[in-house]
Write a structure and sequence with these properties.
Blueprint: E1 3-7, H1 14-22, E2 28-32, H2 45-53, E3 57-62, H3 76-92, E4 98-103, H4 112-125, E5 130-137, H5 138-147, E6 156-159, E7 184-195, E8 198-207
Parallel strand pairs: 1-2, 2-3, 3-4, 4-5, 5-6, 6-7
Antiparallel strand pairs: 1-8, 7-8
Helix pairs in contact: 3-4
């Protein structure tokens, strides 16, 4: 069974979240932790509680270091340090455990520093109540997946936007991303979703999981 959800850079607010849930289309919401490359607003403990009270699941994101950062920040040690920060930020808003998706933007195939950083972040969450997942583009997905050869592979949210499936809420699966290992496919960016008389722009996802971050409260 496939489950549909959404995310948005800035929290939509409690009233809008309730209205979105009332549409009956979405099982989970994105939730951004304060992180090095996240500049949005509104994802507080109150926001987490609102989403949880509706019975929705989560995609917890941590937007870590990117290809545009200096080489000194793209190291295994920095990845582990940021993992510790992600745990603290998640606990601060009330998460007790679950999957934190490291948001990796851009094409990382030729950036060995990013390889080290990603593996450092993954390792930094081991032996905690949290584990690492990966959010990335279809372009980088296979490269990042292969970094985990010999390790327990994380869940992947893969972004590949396909106009042919715009505004669909049935008949999709994560393998539509073009990768058999995808557990969630972000298939549309800035979809126009009508919510009680006005429109919101949301990124749309389809997942194998009703709660992609498998969060406990």
């Amino acid at each position: 069974m496939a489950y549909y959800g959404f995310d948005k850079r800035d929290y939509v607010g409690a009233t809008n979240m309730q209205k979105i849930y009332a549409l009956g289309k979405f099982s989970y919401s994105g939730f951004y932790l304060t992180s090095p490359h996240y500049g949005g607003t509104g994802y507080t403990s109150a926001a987490r509680q609102t989403i949880a009270n509706l019975g929705m699941g989560f995609m917890i994101y941590y937007v870590g270091r990117q290809t545009t950062d200096s080489a000194t920040l793209k190291t295994s040690a920095q990845g582990a340090k940021d993992a510790t920060d992600a745990i603290a930020k998640a606990k601060a808003v009330g998460f007790r455990g679950g999957i934190i998706y490291l948001d990796v933007e851009g094409d990382v195939k030729a950036d060995r520093g990013m390889d080290n950083y990603i593996l450092g972040f993954y390792g930094g969450l081991e032996d905690s109540a949290f584990t690492a997942g990966i959010y990335c583009s279809s372009t980088s997905a296979s490269h990042i997946y292969n970094l985990f050869n010999g390790r327990t592979r994380p869940r992947f949210i893969i972004a590949r936007y396909d106009p042919a499936v715009a505004n669909k809420y049935s008949g999709l699966t994560p393998t539509g991303s073009g990768h058999s290992f995808a557990t969630t496919w972000q298939y549309q960016e800035n979809a126009v979703v009508a919510v009680q008389g006005y429109n919101l722009l949301l990124d749309l996802n389809v997942s194998d999981y009703k709660d992609p971050s498998a969060v406990g409260f």
